[in-house]
Each structure stands twice: as structure tokens, then as C-alpha cells.
Specification:
Layout lengths: L2 H8 L1 H17 L5 H13 L4 H18 L7 H13 L12 E6 L6 H14 L4 E4 L8 H12 L2 E3 L7 H15 L3 E5 L7 H18 L5 E8 L4 H13 L4 E5 L9 H9 L3 E5 L7 E3 L2 H9 L9 H6 L1 H86 L3 H21 L1
Parallel strand pairs: 1-4, 1-5, 2-3, 2-4, 5-6, 6-7
Antiparallel strand pairs: 7-8
Helix pairs in contact: 1-12, 2-3, 3-4, 4-5, 5-12, 6-7, 8-9, 10-11
């Protein structure tokens, strides 16, 4: 199967969805008017081409229809094909002109980063290049082990540290090793969590700085891996990553499993980032260089217009499924472990947040008890002071009785006693 056939097969779901809707639209109109363009805009948007890009395509089509005097809706297919091909521009491949060439792989967990690294490593190894892989995603559980499986499968070396190590230190050692070993291609994995954009930005900047310092003058390709099945969400991810990294190209994975391949047009048009590689299957050689011409041809041409027959796929479906099952076990296991590791990380974050919440509540309770204790102590002090005042008052009264006026009390008492004695004698 040639490269064009692979892309055509990978785009089958996208083509069937988009072309089916387009054929239905063209058959519904007998002339090209404003209502036709409105329906076309809506059709393109539903094909995950994006609002802005869909409006741009219809704008260009309006110009061509007017310039060429086209009135039959059935004739717009070739014009659309030409417009989309022009929007995608010239093909840009990965630059491997220096030794070493450093390829930084970024993207969210689950997009297919590990698979892409394995396929790239195998591809360059088969081309006779010396390849080294750096396991710089040190935070995701089992990421290093999964990458080791792929490097063993591709037959290339790996540089790794213990889980939780500084990613930049892994890249530093990998660049040093690449130069010492005369490595042609150094592929670096990175962490793929977007919830803390500042940490991600700092980490990517640090890694880029190390590459430029330790491999001065070498090409640094920063490839963003996106999952085609996520549609416009992939475009949003590209926007976020473009804010924190100097992305040189897109790798669009799982193109064969979705009808949302139109996001290729949206990514290139809205972000100006070229799609350099597309994943059109699960085999090692199913990571293909992107071709704008092949993409447009496969999207618009019928099955008889190229040298690949989809019906032949159906005839050999059982044979291919057996082969595909063997090839996909590793990828399914990888996706499973990625999902599990993501859930573990999310659970850890939630537990951490819960402990912080409990800590705050304990601190608030402690402060409340402390305030109440202080109030009780203040009350006791006040009562003690009142008691002390009463004691002092009683003492003062006693002193008054025994002090300078005490003789009066004694004389009065003595007088009373003397009078009593005299009365007794008289009797």
C-alpha cells in the first residue's frame, strides 16, 4: 500500500461524512445563492473545520464563483478542493539536517505521545539513523516503563532517571549522551498535564534552554501531538500549548478512527502551525508525512480516482483484523495504563485538596477553641479581681475596728462592764 493509499484509508471516515453531506447539499439546490452559502457554512462547521475557517472557505468560494460565473452547485467541488489545498500551503517536513537533531514531543496525556515516539524512533532507525530517546516525562506513573517497551520494540537506546526526577536533568544527560555517541536523532518525551500552565511553561522553557546550550546550532523541533478524535478540542489544546511553547509542527494521531479530520484545515488556518505527521493506523509504519495535496485529493476524490480500492479492504477484513489485533495489543495496554495513571494523579490531587480542606477546618476549629479559652480566662481574671477587691474592702473594715478608732470600742466595752459590776455590788 503506497503513502497516498494510507492517507486515503485514514481519511475514509472524514471523507464519507463530509462528502456525503456535500453531495446532499448540492442535490438540494439548483442554483448557487446566499441560502446555499449559508447551508455550506453550516455543513463545514459540523465537519469540525471550525467557524472562522468555514467562513474563510465560503468567502474564497464566493469570489471564485463570481469570477468564473459558476451557477451549478455540482461544480463547486473542484473549487472547494483547490481552496482547501491552498489554505494548507506547502508541505513542511521535520528538519533533520543537524547531528544531533533534537525532537521535543509535547501534548496532553492520552493523545498518543508515547506511540508517536515509538513510531518515529522505528522510522528513523529503519532509515539507518542512530536514534536515542529521552524519558523526560518523569511524573506520570508508568510513563518510563511504557516508553522502554516501545524503544525495545524499535531497537533504539533510552536515557532515563528514576520516577519523579527533574525532567530537565534527563534531557541534559540525553543531549550529552547524544553528542558523545554521535546520535543523529534525539527524541525527548515530556509531561503532558495542562492543569498548571505555569509549571508546564517553566519546564518547557528550561528544557529548550538546556537543548540550545548543550547542543548549540542543532535543530530543535517541537512537535505537538493531538488526538484527531477530539475534534475542535484538539484545536483548543493547540492554542493553549502555543502560548507556552514554540511549536514547529503538529502530529495528528488516530486520523483513521474519526470523521473529524477537518481539524487539520482549522489548525493550519487559525494557528499557522503546519501539520507535519499524521497517524493513519496502529502499525509502526502508519505514521506518515502529511501531504496537503494528498489530503485534498483523498478528501474529494472518489474511490476510482486513485489506486486504492476500499472494497478490497472489506474483502480482506478478516485477515487484516487478525494482523491488526496483534499490533494493537501494546497500544491498548499503553492507553489503559495512561488512563489509570491519569486517574491516579487526579485522585492524588483530590486527596491533597481534601487534606488541605480538612487542615483549614482544623485550623479554624483550633482558632475558635482558642478564642473561647481566652474568653473564659478573661472572665476568671475579672472575677478574681472582683473577689480581690471585696477581700481588700473587708480587710479595710477590720483595720478600721482595730486601728486608731479601736480605743473607743474598748472604752465603751469597759464602761459597760464597770457599770454592770457596780450594780451587782449594790445588790
Amino acid at each position: 500500500m503506497n503513502i497516498f493509499s494510507k492517507i486515503a484509508a485514514g481519511l475514509k471516515k472524514t471523507k464519507d461524512s463530509m462528502m456525503g453531506k456535500l453531495e446532499s447539499l448540492m442535490n438540494s439546490f439548483t442554483k448557487i445563492d446566499e441560502e446555499f452559502f449559508e447551508e455550506l457554512e453550516e455543513l463545514l462547521i459540523t465537519c469540525d473545520i471550525g467557524v472562522e475557517t468555514s467562513l474563510d472557505i465560503c468567502g474564497e468560494l464566493r469570489k471564485k464563483v463570481k469570477e468564473k460565473g459558476i451557477t451549478d452547485p455540482a461544480l463547486i467541488k473542484d473549487e472547494l478542493k483547490e481552496i482547501i489545498a491552498e489554505m494548507l500551503g506547502e508541505d513542511k517536513k521535520i528538519d533533520t539536517s543537524t547531528t544531533p537533531t533534537v525532537i521535543l514531543i509535547i501534548g496532553v496525556n492520552g493523545a498518543g505521545k508515547t506511540t508517536t515516539i515509538g513510531k518515529l524512533a522505528a522510522r528513523y532507525k529503519n532509515e539507518g539513523k542512530k536514534v536515542l530517546v529521552a524519558a523526560a516525562d518523569t511524573f506520570r506513573a508508568a510513563a518510563i516503563e511504557q516508553l522502554e517497551v516501545w524503544t525495545e520494540r524499535a531497537g533504539v537506546d533510552i536515557v532515563k532517571h528514576a520516577e519523579g526526577s527533574d525532567p530537565a536533568s534527563v534531557v541534559f544527560d540525553a543531549v550529552t549522551a547524544a553528542k558523545a555517541r554521535g546520535t543523529d536523532i534525539l527524541i525527548c518525551d515530556t509531561a503532558g498535564r495542562l492543569h498548571n500552565k505555569k509549571n508546564l511553561m517553566d519546564e518547557l522553557k528550561k528544557i529548550s534552554r538546556i537543548v540550545h546550550q548543550q547542543a548549540e546550532g542543532c535543530v530543535l523541533e517541537t512537535l505537538l501531538v493531538l488526538d484527531a478524535t477530539t475534534g475542535q478540542n484538539a484545536v483548543n489544546q493547540a492554542k493553549l500549548f502555543s502560548e507556552v511553547a514554540d511549536i514547529t509542527g503538529i502530529v495528528l494521531t488516530k486520523l483513521d478512527g474519526t470523521a473529524k479530520g477537518g481539524i487539520i484545515i482549522s489548525i493550519h488556518r487559525e494557528l499557522g502551525i503546519p501539520v507535519k505527521l499524521v497517524g493513519v493506523g496502529e502499525k509502526l509504519d502508519d505514521l506518515q508525512d502529511f501531504s496537503a495535496k494528498d489530503f485534498a485529493d483523498a478528501l474529494f476524490e472518489t474511490e476510482t480516482d486513485f489506486d486504492y480500492n476500499y472494497e478490497r479492504l472489506d474483502d480482506k477484513k478478516e485477515e487484516q483484523e487478525d494482523e491488526k489485533e496483534d499490533e494493537s495489543v501494546l497500544e491498548k495496554a499503553e492507553e489503559f495504563f495512561e488512563d489509570i495513571s491519569d486517574k491516579i494523579e487526579d485522585t492524588a490531587d483530590k486527596v491533597e485538596d481534601k487534606f488541605e480542606e480538612i487542615g483549614d477546618k482544623i485550623e479554624d476549629a483550633f482558632d475558635s477553641v482558642k478564642d473561647k479559652v481566652e474568653d473564659v480566662v478573661d472572665d476568671i481574671k475579672d472575677k478574681a479581681e472582683e473577689t480581690e477587691d471585696k477581700i481588700e474592702e473587708a480587710v479595710e473594715k477590720k483595720d478600721l475596728k482595730n486601728g486608731k478608732f479601736g480605743f473607743l470600742f474598748k472604752e465603751i466595752s469597759f464602761g459597760k462592764k464597770k457599770k454592770a459590776d457596780e450594780t451587782e455590788d449594790e445588790e
